[in-house]
Amino acid sequence: MAPPEGSTLYSTMIEIIPSLSILNGKVTRLKQGDYSEETVYKQSPVDVAKKFEDYGIKKIHMVDLDGAKKGSPVNYHALESVANYTGLQVDFSGGIATDGDISKAYEYGATSVTAASVAIENQKLFASWLLSYGREKITLGADALDMNIAIKGWQKSTNINIFDHIDYFHMRGLKYVKTTDIAKDGIQEGPNFELYKEIVERFPHVNLIASGGVRSVEDIQKLDELGVKGVIFGRAYYEGNLTLDDLTRLL
């Protein structure tokens, strides 16, 4: 897909990763993780994914919102459909808690998984996955509110500091971390650049994937300049504020 006429091309290193959140089998967005603040979209997960692929997107982040709340994945059928009908790499998340969950995710077409709650509740198990599945295949989900990690689909808060949490797994070979400032998620006020800057500076050998608050190409460019390796966006696209034509300037 060619960029729109008159647009400017930018050279960026950051990976552009759309979010595809699934609730009850449908594409759904939440506001700050609040399940009572849901917006359901008409297009099927496959139709949305195909459109991303048509514009040159290579990878999506699929969030099983039912699975995140339940504590074990639910929407494997959506994963399977997207994997079967597109050539996209799918990073699957939402309730991954056991080796069986990971095996099933791969069986249904995931190319990598992101896990969050298990890294709090069973640190040794998550650390073992970095060795058994490989650092390229396992991403730590480290989502925080007021600098403390939140788990279970952001429904449960902890008193564990985000930097301490990342550092624990950094010392055990972590390569990828996905971080959302929950206060910024779904409200279109811009990412927490200060948080991402500090993570990059503290952990230069960890690839940071930033999520939450992205409004525009300019936000993505700023994250790129900070050294962020990947950016996940959702609501800005689904509500038409960030278009795929905009993103072709970066792809």
What does this protein structure show overall?
The chain has one domain (15-247): Aldolase class I (TIM Barrel), CATH 3.20.20. 35% of the residues lie in helices and 27% in strands. The chain is built from 11 helices and 13 strands. It has an 8-stranded parallel β-barrel, surrounded by 6 helices. Strands 8-9-10 form a 3-stranded antiparallel sheet. Helix 1 (45-54) packs parallel to helix 3 (76-85).
How do the strands and helices of this protein lay out in sequence?
Blueprint lengths: L14 E9 L2 E6 L2 E7 L4 H10 L4 E6 H6 L5 H10 L3 E5 L5 H9 L4 E4 L1 H5 L1 H10 L5 E4 L2 E2 L2 E4 L4 E6 H9 L5 E5 L12 H10 L4 E5 L5 H10 L3 E4 L1 H4 L5 H4 L4
Parallel strand pairs: 1-4, 1-13, 4-5, 5-6, 6-7, 7-11, 11-12, 12-13
Antiparallel strand pairs: 1-2, 2-3, 8-9, 9-10
CATH homologous superfamily designation: Aldolase class I
Q: Count the domains.
A: 1
SS field, number of helical segments: 11
Q: What is the beta-strand fraction?
A: 25-35%
Question: Structural class of the helices, strands and pairings?
Answer: alpha/beta
